Amino acid sequence: MNSQTPSRMAVTVGCKLGMLLGGAQIINHSLEVFANLQPPLPAIRGVAMWAVMFLVCGAASSIAYGRTGAVSFGIVASILAAVSSAAILVVYAIAIGAARGEPLSFQAIVRTGGVHLGGSVLVGFAIGLVSGSTAAALRRASRATAMGAVVGLVLLLAAGLSAIAHATGLERSARPPFIMFGLPAVAIALAVAAPAFTALISPPDPLRRHC
Question: How many domains does the chain have?
Fold first, then answer.
C-alpha cells in the first residue's frame, strides 16, 4: 500500500515530469542557439516545444488526479512540472551564456527568469485545470463517451495545427487570428489527451455509467 500523502504524490509526479520536460527544454534551447535552422524549422521547433509542454503538464495533472482523486492536486502537479522545467531552462541558458563568453547580466537573469517562471505558473495552472477536470468528468464515463472525447481532441488538434501551419505562410501582420485560434486549440487538445486516453484504455469500472 502506498503510504504517500496526496500532496506528496502530486509533488512527486510534478517534479518527475518536470525533469522530463526540462530535458526537452534543454534540447529545444540547444537547437535555438547552436543549430542554424532555416524557415520554417524555427517556427516548427517553437510549436513543437509548446506542444510537448501542454502534453506533459496535462499528463502530470491526469496522473496526479488518478492517484489522489482531487483536481486540485492535479493542478499542483501540472504547475510543478511547468515551473521545474522553466527553472531548468533558465539555469541552462545562464550556463550556456557563460560558456560562450556572453554571460547574462543580473538584471537580464531576473527579468528573463521571472518571465519564464511566472508564465510557467499560468500555463501549468490552466493546463492542470483542464486536464484534471477532464479526468474527473471521464472517471466514470462510458467507453463510448471516452471514445468521443478522443475523437474530439484529435479533430481539435488537427484544426489547431492546420491554423498554425497556415499562419506560417502569411505575412506577420496577418498571422494573429490564426495563431490565437490554433495555439489554444492545440493546448486544450493536448491537455485532455492523457485523461481521455486513460479513460479509453482503463479496465471497465463497475460504477462506470453506460449510455
Answer: 1
Residue 43, domain member (yes or no): yes
Residue 164 Ramachandran class (φ > 0 left, ψ -120 to 50 alpha, else beta): alpha
**Nearest Cα residue to 135 out of 72, 51, 206, 52:** 72
Torsion of CA 4, 208, 197, 53, to 10 degrees: -50
The domain containing residue 186 runs over which residues? Answer: 6-201
In a domain, 151, yes or no: yes
Asked whether residue 210 is assigned to any structural domain, the reply reads no
CA distance 192 to 183: 14
8-23 residue pLDDT tens: 999 999 999 999 999 9
Asked if the structure places residue 146 within a domain, the reply is yes
Residues 137-147: pLDDT tens digits?
998 888 899 99
